[in-house]
Amino acid sequence: MNKVTKYIIKYWFAYVLGILFTVASVALDMLSPQVTKRIIDNVIIGGDLDLLPTLLIIVFIIGFGRCIFQYFKEFAFDIVSSRISLNIRRDLFKHIQSLSLNFFDKNNTGELMSRVKDDVDRIWEGLGFVGMLIIEITIHTTLVLFCMYQLCPTLAVIPTILVPLMGALAIFMEKKLGKVYESISEENARLNTVAQENLAGVRTVKAFARETHEIKKFLSHNQKYYDLNMKQSKVFIKYYPYFQFVTKVLPLVVIILGGYQVIHDKMTLGTLGAFVEYSMNIVWPMEMLGWLSNMCASCIASTKRIGKIYAEEPMITENNQPIILNSIEGNICFDHVSFSIDNKSILSDISFDLSAGKTIGIMGATGTGKSSIINLLQRFYDVTEGNIYLDNIAIKDLALKQLRGCISLVMQDVFLFSDTITENVIMGKRSYVNQQEVEDASSKAQASEFIEKLEEQYETIVGERGVGLSGGQKQRISIARALAKKTPILVLDDSTSALDMETEHLIQSELTQTASSKIIIAHRISAVRNADEILILENGKIVERGTHETLLQAEGYYYKTYMAQYGDYLNDIDITASVFCQRGGAVCQ
Questions:
Q1: Residue 523 pLDDT > 70, yes or no?
Q2: Which of 95, 117, 286, 386 is least crowded, fewest Cβ atoms below 10 Å from its Cβ?
Q3: Burial label, 9 (beta-carbon count in 10 A; 0-12, 13-18, 19+)
């Protein structure tokens, strides 16, 4: 709530203007019954027809003035609420972007989309149209009661009693609705998540013929969403008739009691007419109380949910005065690094040195912590024990932007945006990556061949997450993205798994010519065999390390992997050589 208050304070001047326009509009509205009183008493009963044109001109001026002030009132509130919602959505998105990966591990995409879109829209309504009506009703009711007491204090007691009663009923209803709106919003987030996941994975759904299951799952959440909305409607319709009943009865009571006073000459007919008009004016605020309490409950619930996100703090932060290096060579050192999440050990006592321009390969079975090394290097998470150094500086002391900016990462799960191939390669770095560099990087990544066959070539729009491209094509664009960045450190996380051996060999040849320090995570021996050092991970620990040749001689995990991938090929060579020897081949001499 404090966050919203800050925005209101920031734009206080616009709200003050809106309130002044509201006061002017309502004040003019209060003059109308006074004119009615004069017309009845002086013109109709008194017969002063000469006064009628003047009174009609006043009615016209009141109507015209109300139109002008109402326009500027709504314009002021619309402008300021739109501006505040723009800022809230912007700042909320920035805050979400600043949070560490552990936050996204706990919160799904659909829920966050609901917060950024639906909940901000509810706040927009609360600070705009709904807030405007609340202010107008408050001013309107106050002035109406004042004018009623000026005309007839005895009759004014009736609305004075009813208004606070209706206000108390509105507050009671708002509390009832507030709990329901919390549940509605949560279920809306789940519904969004189910729909988003289903649409994003529609090919998987169809491949496994899961349409019926997914429809049932969606309908289940849709039914819960419907039930909660029906529950909200039941609360609303349970109490709203009370507001309608009072608004219908009040003018009738005023006419009866006021008529009695007119008959006994305690009130003029014009005064009664004016009082009835005032009673009609106080009716619509009462009618609005139920609806406004409904909208307020929704706005308050949304504000609380957004407040929970603002309460989240990034787990990864940089020092107040981080070190910014003039240049980065690319020397990396893992010094006895251990890493745990929720008391579960992921890495244990990892140590290695990677000199600038050199290559290190990392292999191991799935789940042994290979990708965690990359996450720690980029400070997506912080180490539990030990330290990581970049050019002899602990990465905790470096600016996050410089640290992550000096690393080009080709991820195992390739993500392409729904944009042109050029934009997917540039990744927002158009200021220092030109089209020629995009094409050169694509050529090195062996992507230019298929790109140039497309109708619009580099300006071809790829679908969401690269829909329409094969796995190998997406990987090659991802590699081109990393090469175009030209950073001192290049990380490839199983980045050639979808490529054929020939294409992989061509890309590996190009990579060996880059001056970057390279970390290559792979399951294929071909991807790491030329590395200066190869690490074998098992259960989060380094169990083997060395070059391709020394690891083969050790006949451990690496040797077994090598034989599993190349055993048949080696056997074929041995058989061919044996046959050749039997025939007196020179190779046997």
A1: yes
A2: 117
A3: exposed
**Is 522 a member of any domain?**
no
Distances (CA, A) of 60 to 26, 42, 54, 66, 157: 15, 19, 10, 10, 32
* Buried b / exposed e along 453-492 (16+ C-beta atoms within 10 A): eeeeebeeebeeebeebeebbbbbbbbbbbbbbbbbbbbb
Give the closest residue to 486 by CA, choosing from 451, 450, 446, 436: 436
* Token pair recorded at residue 368: 């042994």
Tokens in use for 11? 């734009």
Q: What's this model's pTM, rounded to 2 decimal places?
A: 0.64
Query: Is residue 463 predicted with pLDDT exceeding 50?
Result: yes
Tokens 């507001």 belong to which residue?
A: 243
Helix (H/G/I), strand (E/B), else coil: 461: strand
Tokens of 502: 């020939």
Domain count, the chain: 1
Residue 472, both tokens: 């190998």
Cα-to-chain-centroid distance, residue 249: 48
Under 8 Å between Cβ of 484 and 441: yes
Contact residues for 95 (Cβ-Cβ < 8 A; gap 6+)? 309, 310, 312
Structure tokens at 389: 């150094």
* Residue 406 domain flag: no
CA dihedral 86, 87, 93, 99 (to 10 degrees): -170
Is the pLDDT assigned to residue 565 strictly greater than 80? Answer: no
d(CA 447, CA 457): 11
- Within 10 angstroms of residue 12's Cβ, the number of other Cβ atoms is 10
| Residue 422 near residue 458 (C-beta atoms within 8 A) | yes
Q: Are 77 and 133 in contact (CB under 8 A)?
A: no
Distances (CA, A) of 386 to 126, 265, 370: 50, 95, 17
**Which range of residues forms the domain containing residue 251?**
2-311
Which range, 85-99, 227-241, 292-306, is most confident? 85-99
Give residue 367's pLDDT. Answer: 76
Query: What's the pLDDT score for residue 575?
Result: 42
Cα-to-chain-centroid distance, residue 292: 27
Q: Tell me if 93 is assigned to some domain.
A: yes
Q: What is the CATH number of the domain that holds 159?
A: 1.20.1560.10
Residue 29 to residue 33: CA distance in whole angstroms: 8
Which amino acid is present at 155? L
Is there a contact between 347 and 382 (Cβ–Cβ < 8 Å)? no
Return the SS3 of 445. coil
**CA pair distance 454, 325, nearest whole angstrom:** 42
**Terminal C-alpha separation, the chain:** 88
pLDDT tens-digit profile of 199-225? 666 655 655 566 677 777 777 777 887
Three-state DSSP at 361 gives strand
Minimum mean pLDDT range among 103-117, 128-142, 461-475: 461-475
Residue 525 counted as domain residue: no
Local structure of residue 380 (DSSP, 8 states): S
